[in-house]
């Protein structure tokens, strides 16, 4: 009979069985923390832009292209402009949108749950007028009384801006004949002579503005009191259209023009994922960070020139630059590593208390493989004790059967794989097996024929 005793310095199987539930529990909590406490950023986002071929539309496509490289699908949602975009944000139909400064105020933005990602570029107020033969150029907005002026499309921020400008000039909107056509049809109406003027609030690279700046018979209004406007309406800034910048060869414009300008801002719902806020701000730096007609290199994007509270992540970017990890690795990998602190927090809360449970479980599991044989020994002893109540001639068969059973138990015990630190428990079990055998042999009056006594 093979009685090979197996000893190991350590039982990986028992450790795995003891620590397995604990490890699975920790993993489950970590996954839950990762997904619930700080979920991964969505891969789809809706950006509110503006009218077709407007600056908002053009820039929206640039954001779409840049974020596509980072695995973010940007859907562009057209609109008439800032007021429409604010409405779309409030209804949850867009996640982020272009909004002109002055279109809302801080109280309204906070009530709607909106935050700014910063200002992107200036949007000068362009008042284009038809020239009248023999008439001097207009130099005061009060001279607009009685004229037919398109003040911007419904849903854009321009009509509200025009009302504010007229108000500080003491001009009631009712004193003008106003229309609210989209930019393209309004330009057609101006060129056809059916209206006297139109107002844009847009970036200088808007195709319609570029065309009107070079169209004979159309003049640009000079806001000679531009600096005063910025005092009365703080969301405006004073910018200058430099002499000759439109066309040096044709000397257009023939002199400097003073303009007043709100700024275009990126506005998002305050539940937009922080990682997407960072990604959009970084994209804004690439798109709007260069020099232009009205801005210096690096002037935009900026946390200035916006009445809407700036998101914390955006403010941090303007102060410290891009997050450290995102400077050297992809967005998704950097975001994953940045969010690992959630897992570390979960692990620190679980590992210490659970680590105190694993060692006792390990000891219990190893010893349970020894202790369960004591149950078998107790069964054998019970059978021996019950044998005194049967006929004397039948007791020998019972003792012989229990002795055979005891040999099987010993053989199984000898094949147990037990760590060396528990060898004392194993040898204790084997001595108890030997003790029970000696008792059976004693009751039988010696070693029964055909059964060889095993040694401990």
UniProtKB/TrEMBL annotation:
Coiled-coil residue spans: none
Record's protein name: C4-dicarboxylate ABC transporter substrate-binding protein
Segments crossing the lipid bilayer: 12-37, 340-364
Pfam families hit by this protein: NMT1_3
Key words of the record: Membrane, Transmembrane, Transmembrane helix
InterPro entries: TRAP_TAXI
Keyword match Transmembrane helix: yes
């Amino acid at each position: 009979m093979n009685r090979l005793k197996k000893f190991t310095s350590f039982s990986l199987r028992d450790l795995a069985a003891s620590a397995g539930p604990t490890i699975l529990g920790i993993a489950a909590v970590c996954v839950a923390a990762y997904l619930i406490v700080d979920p991964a950023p969505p891969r789809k986002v809706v950006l509110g832009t503006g009218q077709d071929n407007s600056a908002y539309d053009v820039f929206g496509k640039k954001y779409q292209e840049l974020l596509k490289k980072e695995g973010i699908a940007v859907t562009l949602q057209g609109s008439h402009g800032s007021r429409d975009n604010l409405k779309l944000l409030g209804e949850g139909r867009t996640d982020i949108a272009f909004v002109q400064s002055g279109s809302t105020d801080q109280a309204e933005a906070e009530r709607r749950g909106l935050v700014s990602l910063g200002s992107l570029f200036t949007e000068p107020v362009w008042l284009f007028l038809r020239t009248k033969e023999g008439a001097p150029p207009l130099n005061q907005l009060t001279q607009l009384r009685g004229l037919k002026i398109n003040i911007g499309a419904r849903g854009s921020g321009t009509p509200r801006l025009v009302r504010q400008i007229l108000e500080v000039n003491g001009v009631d909107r009712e004193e003008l004949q106003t229309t609210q056509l989209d930019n393209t049809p309004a330009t057609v109406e101006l060129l056809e002579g059916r209206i006297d003027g139109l107002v844009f609030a847009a970036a200088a690279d808007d195709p319609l503005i570029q065309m009107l700046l070079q169209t004979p018979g159309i003049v640009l209004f000079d806001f000679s009191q531009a600096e005063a406007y910025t005092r009365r309406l703080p969301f405006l800034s004073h910018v200058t259209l430099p002499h000759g910048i439109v066309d040096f060869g044709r000397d257009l414009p023939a002199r400097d023009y003073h303009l007043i300008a709100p700024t275009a801002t990126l506005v998002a719902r305050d539940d937009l994922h922080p990682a997407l806020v960072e990604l959009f701000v970084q994209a804004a730096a690439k798109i709007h960070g260069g020099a232009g007609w009205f801005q210096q290199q690096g002037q935009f994007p900026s946390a200035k020139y916006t009445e809407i509270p700036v998101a914390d992540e955006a403010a941090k970017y303007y102060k410290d630059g891009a997050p450290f990890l995102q400077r050297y690795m992809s967005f998704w990998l950097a975001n994953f590593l940045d969010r690992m602190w959630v897992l570390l927090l979960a692990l620190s809360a679980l590992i210490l208390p659970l680590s105190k449970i694993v060692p006792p479980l390990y000891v219990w599991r190893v010893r349970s493989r020894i202790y369960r044989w004591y149950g078998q020994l107790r069964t054998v002893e019970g059978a021996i004790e019950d044998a005194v109540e049967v006929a004397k001639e039948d007791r020998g068969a019972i003792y012989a059967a229990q002795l055979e059973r005891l040999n099987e138990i010993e053989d199984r015990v000898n094949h147990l794989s037990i760590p060396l630190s528990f060898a004392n428990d194993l040898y204790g079990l084997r001595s108890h097996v030997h003790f029970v055998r000696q008792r059976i042999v004693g009751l039988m009056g010696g070693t029964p024929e055909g059964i060889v006594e095993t040694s401990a």
